[in-house]
Amino acid sequence: MNEIRQLVWNGELNVLVSIDPSFLMKGSPKEMAVLRIRVPRETYLINYMPLIWNRIQDFLSFDPLNEKEKYFWFEHNGRPIRWNYPVGVLFDGLVASSATFVTSSGIHPENVITLFKVHLVMGKSLPSTVIPILSSSNQAEKFWFHQWKQVCFILNGSSKGIMSLSVNESRKFWRSVITRNFHDFTEISKKISPSRPRHVPIIIQTHKDLGIEVISQPTISMTGVNPTLRDIEQEVISAKEIIDAGSYVIVSQGIEIPWDIALFDLYLKFRSFDGFLYITLVPKISVARTFR
Amino acid sequence: MSRILESENETESDESSIISTNNGTATERARNHPELKSSTHTVQNRLELFSRRLSQLGLASDASVDQQLDSSASSTYEQKEVNKTNTSTSEQKNIATEQKSRKEEPDAQKIQIKFQPIGSIAQLKPSVCKISMSQPFAMVILFLKRRLKMDYVYCYINNSFAPTPQQNVGELWTQFKVSDELIVSYCASVAFG
What we know:
The complex is a heterodimer of chains A (292) and B (193).
Chain A: H1 2-10, E1 12-19, E2 34-40, H2 49-56, E3 71-76, E4 79-80, H3 87-94, H4 100-103, E5 116-123, H5 139-156, H6 160-163, H7 167-178, H8 182-192, E6 199-200, E7 202-206, E8 215-216, E9 220-221, H9 233-237, E10 248-252, E11 255-256, H10 263-270, E12 277-283, H11 284-290
Parallel strand pairs in A: 1-5, 7-12
Antiparallel strand pairs in A: 1-2, 3-4, 3-5, 6-9, 7-8, 10-11, 10-12
Helix pairs in contact in A: 7-8
Chain B: E1 5-7, E2 19-21, H1 23-32, H2 41-57, H3 71-86, H4 89-104, E3 110-117, E4 128-132, H5 137-148, E5 154-157, H6 169-176, E6 181-187
Parallel strand pairs in B: 1-2, 3-6
Antiparallel strand pairs in B: 1-4, 3-4, 5-6
Helix pairs in contact in B: 1-2, 3-4
């Protein structure tokens, strides 16, 4: 299992960040407005804000760290992106080819280069679904820690597991995310995860091609049973208007997941760095369209 | 505009407010169905608490409308009263069926939130409110900010974690409810880092 965890942990994406020209002074070189970075699936986009600011600081038309009247956010094809989900989860929900690596036999994954294009924009008001990006350096850390507290509560019925970590362990936990230290991350996350959870922390999102943006967090009870994905099909597809269960595939960490996998097993192998298991419902039509 | 959040004994009738009350409901039900009073100690205690609050406010006699219903439902209620004299019984049945089915829609169901202050921040009165299950948690934060007239309020579930503003209140209630109430603690500064 550790091998699968390690592969998931090492997953990376090519991200192209384009910066809106309004950030830059007139006459700034165009190449400064584009940033190509390789980003782990298991991180937040805002962890790269210092890198972005640093890259364009000489050409900025204002000081973003002291800006009070403007808000910044990321967009993908004109759609605001919620930075509070891991980059890999955003990719799975927005980019059409995410599920094709395993479903298309004629294509070798190593020959496919996918690019996650995001656009950094600003405005006087923030889209309603987006959490503001603050200038404080530890915004992501604080948010992530609360996610883990919530996960701990769902798994154990209280947040004692994570709250009883020492200050050093808490710091080490976040540092393991930043420095990509799989060993430290596994060691500390194990302390929080029980062998018999009460519920499984799961977040289900719909792919953009479904035309509706639904994100749900159902309560999946684990008392006395270890259900498979098939057993919780109703909870998975209860994401509002999605009715036909046979018309989509389930994707987690960019991989198509079979219906008969045990849920807790799936959780332990595929959970994200914030402790949640993210599942994306991808319509089969968008999978087929990519390689037509 | 229909109301989104309901508190237990607020009396203002501003339609644009996100708050409404259910005080009248409890009193009305208790009056019409005395058996409810003896059903459980909790219900009895709450009813007593309500009537005590009402008598303090001098509003007991005015509490006749089921204020749990939103404004559209209230208009249906009024319409129903008029229909008693003007329309046939079958039409009334249709309205009742429509009302019932509307109430049974999961998203239209309301859940209770209990607000608990942390530190020196003002206590919300009443401390228990109702909100539609389909609302995001951002609505709860907005309500607190308006009620407390503050720019920033930090909210925590079960004195433990801060949910994201995008999370669905109904899902939070299902996962973290205590005695059928979602416990939301609030503070003027960071309380649980």
